[in-house]
C-alpha cells in the first residue's frame, strides 16, 4: 500500500490513495471516517484532469494507530510530511469537517508556498467551542457528552450519530449508513476519542488570518453536526475574498448525499 512515514514524536505510517494525473488535489476526510468517503469526488476530479490524493489521518482507515499525536499541530505536521515527501506543488487542499482543521492549521504553520487554493467543506473552523470570546460557539458539554458516550459504547454512539450526519428519517438510507458505520468501526478507539477533543476545542481563528490564496467554503444549511452559522459563514467572514457556496437543505454528510452538486462546485472552483 502506498504510504509515507511521518517525522517527529509519535511517528506513524500514513496511507494514501492516488488517482489521476494533473494538478494535485489533496482530500482530507472527516471524523470518524477515512479516504473512502471521497469515492465520488475522486472519480469526478480525476476524470476532469486532476491528480487526487486522499490520505487517512493517523488512527483512521489504513494508517497507523499510534498512542499519541491526536492534536492539530501533529495533524498539520503529518500533512506537511505528505506534501514534502510527495513533493506536491501548486496543490489544492480540500478538507471536510474535521479535515478543514488540517487545512487551516497547515496554512497557519507552514504557509501557502506549495498551494494554489484551499477548500473548507462543512468544516469545523474557525472555532466550534463556546468561550467568553467566542459566544457563538457550541457548549463544551456537547463535546464532553460525545466523548463520554464514545468511551462508553462507541458502536452504539455511531448508531445514533450517523442518521443526524445525513439527516435521515428512521429506517432510511440503510446502505449509506451501513457503509459509513463500517468505515467508522475500523478506526482506532483511542483516536476516535481524542479527535473529539481536538476538533471541539481547537481555535483556528489565527490560522484563518494567514489564508492568502483563493478559498472556497461549502456548507449545507441543514447541517446538524457543524452548524453553518457557527462555522462556514464565520470562516467566510474571516477569510478575505473567500467564496461561500451554500447547499440548500444539505446535511453534514453532503459529500455523499449531494455529491453531484459538490463535485460541480469543486470543479468550477478548481478551473476558475
Automatic annotation (TrEMBL):
<dbReference type="InterPro" id="IPR029058">
    <property type="entry name" value="AB_hydrolase_fold"/>
</dbReference>
<keyword id="KW-0378">Hydrolase</keyword>
<protein>
    <submittedName>
        <fullName>Alpha/beta hydrolase</fullName>
    </submittedName>
</protein>
<dbReference type="Pfam" id="PF00561">
    <property type="entry name" value="Abhydrolase_1"/>
</dbReference>
<dbReference type="InterPro" id="IPR050471">
    <property type="entry name" value="AB_hydrolase"/>
</dbReference>
<dbReference type="InterPro" id="IPR000639">
    <property type="entry name" value="Epox_hydrolase-like"/>
</dbReference>
<comment type="similarity">
    <text>Belongs to the AB hydrolase superfamily. Bacterial non-heme haloperoxidase / perhydrolase family.</text>
</comment>
<dbReference type="InterPro" id="IPR000073">
    <property type="entry name" value="AB_hydrolase_1"/>
</dbReference>
<feature type="domain" description="AB hydrolase-1">
    <location>
        <begin position="24"/>
        <end position="254"/>
    </location>
</feature>
<dbReference type="GO" id="GO:0016787">
    <property type="term" value="F:hydrolase activity"/>
</dbReference>
Amino acid at each position: 500500500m502506498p504510504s509515507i512515514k511521518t517525522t517527529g514524536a509519535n511517528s506513524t505510517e500514513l496511507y494514501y490513495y492516488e488517482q489521476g494525473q494533473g494538478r494535485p488535489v489533496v482530500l482530507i476526510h472527516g471524523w470518524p471516517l477515512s479516504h473512502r468517503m471521497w469515492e465520488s469526488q475522486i472519480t469526478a476530479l480525476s476524470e476532469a484532469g486532476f491528480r487526487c490524493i486522499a490520505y487517512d489521518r493517523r488512527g483512521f482507515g489504513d494508517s497507523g494507530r499510534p498512542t499519541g499525536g491526536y492534536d492539530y499541530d501533529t495533524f498539520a505536521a503529518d500533512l506537511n510530511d505528505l506534501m514534502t515527501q510527495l513533493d506536491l506543488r501548486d496543490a489544492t487542499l480540500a478538507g471536510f469537517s474535521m479535515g478543514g482543521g488540517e487545512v487551516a492549521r497547515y496554512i497557519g504553520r507552514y504557509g501557502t508556498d506549495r498551494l494554489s487554493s484551499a477548500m473548507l467543506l462543512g468544516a469545523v473552523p474557525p472555532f466550534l467551542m463556546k468561550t467568553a470570546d467566542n459566544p457563538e460557539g457550541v457548549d463544551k458539554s456537547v463535546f464532553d457528552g460525545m466523548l463520554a458516550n464514545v468511551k462508553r459504547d462507541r458502536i452504539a454512539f455511531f448508531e445514533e450519530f450517523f442518521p443526524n450526519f445525513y439527516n435521515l428519517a428512521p429506517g432510511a438510507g440503510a446502505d449509506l449508513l451501513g457503509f459509513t458505520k463500517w468505515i467508522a468501526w475500523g478506526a482506532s478507539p483511542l483516536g476516535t476519542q481524542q479527535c473529539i477533543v481536538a476538533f471541539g476545542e481547537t481555535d483556528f481563528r489565527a490560522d484563518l488570518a494567514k489564508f492568502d490564496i483563493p478559498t472556497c467554503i461549502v456548507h449545507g444549511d441543514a447541517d446538524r453536526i457543524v452548524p453553518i452559522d457557527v462555522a462556514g459563514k464565520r470562516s467566510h467572514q474571516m477569510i478575505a475574498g473567500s467564496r461561500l457556496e451554500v447547499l440548500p437543505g444539505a446535511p453534514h454528510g453532503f459529500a455523499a448525499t449531494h455529491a453531484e452538486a459538490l463535485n460541480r462546485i469543486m470543479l468550477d472552483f478548481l478551473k476558475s
